Amino acid sequence: ALLAEHVDDAATIERLAAVKRANKIALSRFVYEKTGAPLDPNALFDVHIKRIHEYKRQLLNLLDTVARYQAIRAAPDGAWVPRVKIFAGKAASGYIKAKMIIKLANDIAAVINRDPVTRDLLRLVFLPNYNVSLAEMIIPAADLSEQISTAGMEASGTGNMKLALNGAITIGTLDGANIEIRDHVGAENIAIFGMEAGDVMIRRKQGLDASDVILNSPKLQRAINAIGTGEFSPGDPGRFESIAHALRYLDHYMVSADFDSYYDAQRSVDARWQVAPAWTRASILNVARMAWF
Q: Nearest-CA neighbor of 149 among 139, 160, 161?
């Protein structure tokens, strides 16, 4: 509450921004030492850390990454917000689909991080061996917190609270503790998108074929085609064909169905980021209003 009282104080805004920047520099140094990937601390650090699972929809974030990559390549002189996508998390030992998602993340990273047209505007890193020590590095450096599980499927874990407490703004579905975070930080200080739990139930009853959605979304169509035809796995073009097939015809987790809403929410995040004092103000309110938890 005390922090919230100072939300419009220029010195407070400046101090919080400096703390966040120092944490981003520290994480950038760590990532470079561990992976050799250089990160720009001035970029928006977009963080998706949690168990790798289809319902947590790391795949939706990866589709947005591919769509953003394709859009930057098509218009490299556009007013792009530099973005670093940071993934970390473990998959259960026998969970083949989750391991395929990890492989896809690494394969996308290998392509986009090498591309001279896009690499200053978009990078992706998947940090291995996720544990508490790694979380302690990532969470204080996060600008954006990905809490994008399929509505109705997320138990109320504490990861989203920890990220908000450290000043990350949440992009998420109206699900789990995201609902209470929105209620406390205010709808203007969180980015909510996508279907709610009731909508998901209705759509599942209608079937899992997402062909209709994809037909009406050229961005989604291009991203799925790139993954399915081997653009990110040139040595093994069919590697991710099963993922592309599921996105088209077996969309149980509503990845394709929620894509356009998510993509639009990510563009609104870019617009917010470009007004630095307003972003930091929202960040401060996320910190201040987590006390309820």
A: 160
User: Which residue bears the tokens 């699972």?
Assistant: 53
Q: What is the pLDDT of residues 135-158, one digit of tens each?
A: 999 999 999 999 999 999 976 678
Spatial distance between the Cα atoms of 177 and 182, rounded to a whole number of angstroms = 9
CB distance 166 to 142 below 8 Å: yes
Measured between alpha carbons, how far is 268 from 264 in angstroms, rounded to an integer?
A: 6
Supply the pTM of this predicted model: 0.96
Beta-bridge partners for 147: 172
Q: What is the DSSP string of 132-199?
A: HHHHHHHGGG-SEEEE-PPTT-----SHHHHHHHTTPEEEE-S-TTHHHHHHHH-GGGSEE-S--HHH
Residue 81 near residue 270, CB atoms below 8 Å? yes
